[in-house]
Amino acid sequence: MLRSQVFAVLRRPLFYRFVSTTRSFIPPSQLNHVGESRPRRSGVQELDAALMQEIADEVEAEEEDLDEIDEKPKPHPESPSFYTGRASYYDNLIELQNAISSTRGTLKRLHLLPLPEFARKSLIPMPTVWKTPREMTVDFETTITISRYRKVIALLNELNEYLRIATTAGYEEIADKISGIVTIFESGKKDAILTRGIRKPIELDRCGRSYTSGRRKTSTARVWMIPVKESPQEEDVDVEEVFGLPQSQSKAPAVNVSVSTILINNFPIVEYFPQPVDRERLVRPLKIAGVLGKYNIFTLVRGGGTTGQSGAIAHGIAKGIFAHEPETGTVLRKAKLLRRDPRMVERKKTGLAKARKAYTWVKR
Amino acid sequence: MNLILRPRLARLSRKCPRQFSTQAPESLETQDDWTNFQQTRSSLKTLMDSLTRYGSHQTSNWSMRNPLHKPAKDATLSALLASGAHFGHASSRMNPNFMPYAYGTRAGITLIDLDHTLPLLRRAAKLVRAITANDGQIVFIGTRPDLRPVVQKAAFRLGEQGFHVGERWLPGTLTNKWQMFGHDTVRSKRIIPDLVILLNPIQNMNAIQECALTNVPTIGIIDSNVDPRIVMYPIPANDESPRTAEIIAGVLSIAGREGIALRQAEEARMRLAVDTAWEDFPATEEAVSEFEKKEEQEDTKPLDGEESFDY
User: Fold this and answer.
1) A182 and A268 share one domain
2) What is the pLDDT of residue A225?
3) Are A64 and A146 members of one domain?
4) Same structural domain, A107 and A68
5) Which of A188-192, B264-268, B285-289 shows the highest mean pLDDT?
6) Which of A13, A85, A118 sits opposite B26 (nearest CB)?
7) Which domain holds residue A180?
């Protein structure tokens, strides 16, 4: 078998492929033949088994090759960025750049760019959350390093700015086109992340009570607040008349003062907090908001000591005032009453007597 | 109120008049505000445009063409000089093999002879045209930020046959293609290109080496500190000037586009000829079988200049 194959090779001329008149020259790079072209051997070589096997392989390859030589050459790679090795990443980058330049041209023609300061301040805020580098790695099929991510994000932010301008100025077609591109790169958790940190507004129940909670150190307080109902005015008893005393010349104008009650664990405030410091701390939010006698307060408090409990109740009261009257928000926020005080007891450390206190230093 | 506004206006008047107006609103709230804002700007612009013709009279109508978006078909000596293509690197760094293309020295810099550059550029353009006319693949490599848009545009001009590399050429793209692109892609697509054009060859020696190993012809912009023999068709010019690169890449990509157009015209002509030929000779069964017999005989016949051996 090998003998016949060897003689088949020897029968052919050396440069068979290129002498043919029926076939046109196709460069080797366009052929389906995948193996490396073997260098022609010069000089006489002994025909041993290894060499014969090699020649047989070459004959087989050439035979396959000749069959396919008349076929069409292989197609071109689709992407123009094929030789970068990261075709989809660079293609997407080019797409984004083209979108930006075309949108910029359109907005300039519409006199919306460059935008002066006062117009920029009036733009609708459109915060977005972009995909993480990991998610983009899946999309682009290449590892998105931090530098590549920054480039993409810079382009996306510019596109988002143009989207803001187009939406605010009322050009819906442009806005739709841009948002079509931008939504591809937006994170799926965008809504969840944007609504993070926004507090749920506290609703009053059917009786008009607010229910809030406050914390300080290790204490928690549950606070119910209800506005004091103004009972119909009782006729002021004129003391002078009753006792038949001579009438004083000037009568001071009657001042209506509403009186409210504060109950803590069903105890009145004076009983529960004998120290005036704690009472002051508790009542401070009411004073700052200017609603000292306006609300009846019922509290259940647990945990901690006097300072912690009074601080927790104050926190709950501040939140309750904000629920009843949102206009007091700025004042309470400035006084840091709506903020949960994060200070907690610091732990004791090894080698120290207390959290910070060190043992007496001994020279020897 | 006016007293407070006046000093602010004085500062604003230094800005572009399009950006401020004495009746500028504090903020734009409604849709109508935005429309009015746009209208004031557009009316200001039309006013300015109509008044410009009453200003100084320009006698020359010359305007510089954008070399990136609208390059010239042929490079002229004046265009190359204007772009600074004749500036080489320091004479102390001149490569001795560059001597044939050097004009001389001035201010410690080697000046490149543009009388050599122009014919070599035309030769390269002819090569590009011929390759694209034969359905060849051409890769433009320009790995600097200022060269990135140049190679993109040049590749875009060649359509399916144009490719670009704007950032680092990954070593092994051609020599390690199996691992790089995967077995399916290598078997189904053409990986080895038919021509590589380098706009900054010194930074892409890996690419040049791979082209040499895979027998790919190269064209490159050769500066005075570079050996012209690293590429097959050197174009001696300043490799640091982006405008020079725009001119050269423009000339080559337009030549490539011409090659593609030539090929398409040729294909259309052949298709037309084939269609009209079949009208005269309809494909009956007899004609087809005769044709097939002839083909077989030709295949088995020994070729010219060969003796038939009988063992």
Assistant:
1) no
2) 96
3) no
4) no
5) B264-268
6) A118
7) 82-194
Angstrom distances, CA of residue B179 to CA of A32, A122, B112, B172: 18, 54, 42, 9
| CB pair distance less than 8 Å for B190 and A29 | yes
pLDDT digits (tens, 9 = 90+) for A219-243: 999 999 999 987 766 666 666 677 7
Best probe of the A interface among B190, B196, B263, B309, by most A CBs < 10 A, is B190
Whether complex ipTM tops 0.90:
no
A90: which chain B residues are within 8 Å (Cβ-Cβ)? Answer: 166-167
Higher pLDDT, residue B13 or B181: B181
Smallest CA–CA distance from B24 into chain A, residue: A118
- Specify if A160 maps to a domain: yes
Non-local CB neighbours of B241 within 8 Å, separated by 6+ positions: B83, B84, B85, B87
Check whether residue A221 and residue A119 sit in a common domain. Answer: no
Number of domains in chain A: 3
* Shortest distance, CA B15 to any CA of chain A (angstroms): 11
Contacts of B166 in chain A (CB under 8 A): 84, 90
The model's confidence at residue A10, banded by pLDDT at 50, 70 and 90, is low
pLDDT above 50 (res A276)? yes
Q: Do B216 and A29 touch (CB under 8 A)?
A: yes
* DSSP β-bridge partners for residue B222: B236
Closest residue in A to B19 (Cα–Cα): A116
Contact between residue B128 and residue B218 where contact means Cβ atoms under 8 Å apart: no
Residue A199 included in any domain: no
Do A64 and A132 have their domain in common? no
pLDDT for residue B2: 46
What would the two tokens of residue B5 be? 């506004």
Q: What is the pLDDT of residue B148?
A: 96
Residue ranges and CATH numbers for the domains of chain B are 77-262 (3.40.50.10490)
Q: Which residue of A has its CA nearest to B311?
A: A7
- Inside any domain, residue A36: no
Whether residue A214 is found in the same domain as residue A328: yes
Contact B141, B197 (CB under 8 A): yes
The 10s digit of each residue's pLDDT in A56-109 is 777 666 665 555 555 678 999 999 999 999 999 999 999 999 999 999 999 999
Query: So what's the pLDDT on residue B29?
Result: 83
Chain B environment of A75 (Cβ under 8 Å): 188-190
How does DSSP assign B7-75, residue by residue? HHHHHHTTS-GGG--TT--S---SHHHHHHHHHHHHHHHHHHHHHHTTSPPP--------TTTS--SS-
Is 90 exceeded by the pLDDT of residue A254? no
Per-residue pLDDT tens for B131-154?
Answer: 999 999 999 999 999 999 999 999
Angle at A45 between CA A41 and CA A49, to 5 degrees: 105
